């Protein structure tokens, strides 16, 4: 493949979109739609779209696999993430990081982790949930289409060197 996600100097950080997930309302598990238009507010038709800093959520397949290893029957979209990725250590990306998805979409990481105000069904089943500590959130900088199989490239040239970081601990109240 010639690219990796190790962050070696001079080599791009590259991952893959494995699922594009939407739901009409907040608090619902999202369904993989395969491809979706990304507008300036987020994924078209998604309940989390809007004028705020968490327009799009991302979670790594590797994080979901941790929950599967605990015996849960979960997969992409079950943690309400919009984009399920593979091959990138998302939580290591600082706030301000720019992510190019496919040919058109450009996102900026705005938050790492989140406060879990109401423990979800997954937490009650497994005693743990990865989204609050391993999910990231982004705002849309450039609109376009995102689809399963698209490359995700960490755009080092457009990434801010300093960003205000919002980092929440797991299930903080």
UniProtKB/TrEMBL annotation:
Alphabetized Pfam families for the sequence: MOSC
Highest taxon listed in the record's lineage: Bacteria
MOSC domain ranges (all copies): 30-155
Sample GO molecular function, one term: catalytic activity
SUPFAM superfamilies in alphabetical order: PK beta-barrel domain-like
PANTHER family: METAL-SULFUR CLUSTER BIOSYNTHESIS PROTEINS YUAD-RELATED (PTHR36930), MOSC DOMAIN-CONTAINING PROTEIN (PTHR36930:SF1)
Name this protein carries in UniProt: Cyclic pyranopterin monophosphate synthase
């Amino acid at each position: 493949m010639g690219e990796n996600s190790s962050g070696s100097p001079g080599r791009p950080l590259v991952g893959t979109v494995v699922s594009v997930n939407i739901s009409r309302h907040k608090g619902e598990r999202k369904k993989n739609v395969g491809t979706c238009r990304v507008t300036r507010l987020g994924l078209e038709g998604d309940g989390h779209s809007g004028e705020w800093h968490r327009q799009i959520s991302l979670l790594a397949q590797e994080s979901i696999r941790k929950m599967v290893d605990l015996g849960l029957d979960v997969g992409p979209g079950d943690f309400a993430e919009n984009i399920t990725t593979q091959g990138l250590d998302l939580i290591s990306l600082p706030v301000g990081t720019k992510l190019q998805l496919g040919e058109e979409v450009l996102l900026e990481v705005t938050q790492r982790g989140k406060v879990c105000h109401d423990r979800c069904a997954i937490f009650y089943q497994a005693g743990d949930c990865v989204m609050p500590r391993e999910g990231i959130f982004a705002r849309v900088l450039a609109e376009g289409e995102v689809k399963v199989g698209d490359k995700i490239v960490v755009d080092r040239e457009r990434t801010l060197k300093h960003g205000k970081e919002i980092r929440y601990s797991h299930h903080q109240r």
